[in-house]
Here is the input.
Amino acid sequence: MIKDNQKNFSRLHVLIDAVVIAVSYLCAWTIRFVGPFSASAVRSRSFEQYMFLLVFMIPLYLILYHAFTLYTPLHMQGRRLVLSNVVKANTLGLLIVITALYVVREGNLSRTTFVIFYIINICLEWGVRMLIFKILRDMRRKGRYQKQMILVGYSRAAEEYIDRIQQNPQWGYVIRGILDDNVPAGTVYNGVKVIGRIANLMVILPANRLDEIAITLGLSEYYRLEEIVALCEKSGVHTKFIPDYNKIIPTKPYTEDILGLPVINIRYVPLSNTFNALVKRIMDIFGSIAAIIISSPLMLLICLLIKISSPGPLIYKQERVGLHNKTFWMYKFRSMEIQPEDQEKKAWTVKNDPRVTPIGRFMRHTSIDELPQLFNILKGDMSLVGPRPERPFFVEKFREEIPRYMVKHQVRPGLTGWAQVNGYRGDTSIRKRIDCDLYYIENWTIGFDIKILFLTFFKGFINKNAY
Here is the structure.
């Protein structure tokens, strides 16, 4: 059976990892004490004493690999996710080993050896996993090591699942057919046929050696879910549920356990957590203060140039919609001639806009006009990173035209954001901009913020779509 093969393969994978850890450690010792770093090495412990540590290191790393889901079937994870988990597991392993050596006051073991081991082990573990992935993919494409399954219920979810299975033969799934009560037998979708009614499960399950069943009922059939799950579980066949509401609930829904009652949040917003929000706010305060100090000479020069080039105020404030749909005054250096407020509220700038001053065109192109928003960040109206805020007129317009547009107001707006570093600024697609904003909102981490700030310095300031 494929399930037994999977168990055996997982055991083999653990054994391979143990060998890789040992080989990496031996290579690290050799490089440090025999290879290019040996000239500066002080060998205060014998080779046997170094190798004895593997008795503790191998179980530690295998436990960490299990904790970081590195024994989940490779075809169910992306390559980047596997690499990320390999790095995380090895980083935590290195910290635990170094800390343990410090606690037991073992200062005579070379820390350089462990750093070399860390680098080698990441490379080898990643390489071995990619080699295994390639071998399995080739085997599955040749029809070997495949999982036989049927779908219960014909729906949009069933069609999308079939599409993905057929687009990825390396996953090793073969769909034998679909059971449904509302679609006639013989109906075919992309080569997969409706082979009978759901009641046929009673006959199919004992007679067939299926590896998996996927429940793909339409929304109107969910009242039968408990009955079908009970049938499948009696057979002992692995069963999974593919919901028909993926347009409503995100790919990674946030679930809660309320005294045994499962609750699915429609959208997971990490910044709704008080601790996360506090960490981000502290980062905003210190970051904005540092940026104000560093950019103050430039801001003073811009003030002088604005005053010389055209009459009017130095700072221009505009009403924008921020956190929880509350409006605030966003500051900018004035880049346009003074115009009536009712006209300004409802119009974007266009190419070769006559209202833009010469110095204003340069400021808008380089985003220097946004620098006063550092004071908005200090006040708490904005954040260093987040969705860009929009004027109330356009918010009311887009909320009716673009699905999920208002979700962006569940976090503070930002000086820069994921949409901006991906090129969606100025006169670009609002829908793609919102897609980027939603991705940021659902996947926020401090590391993600730092990444966006880093990218902003390289490709976020120059705005070719700013007029």
Notes: The two ends are 64 Å apart (CA to CA). The mean pLDDT is 82. The first strand starts at residue 147 and ends at 152.
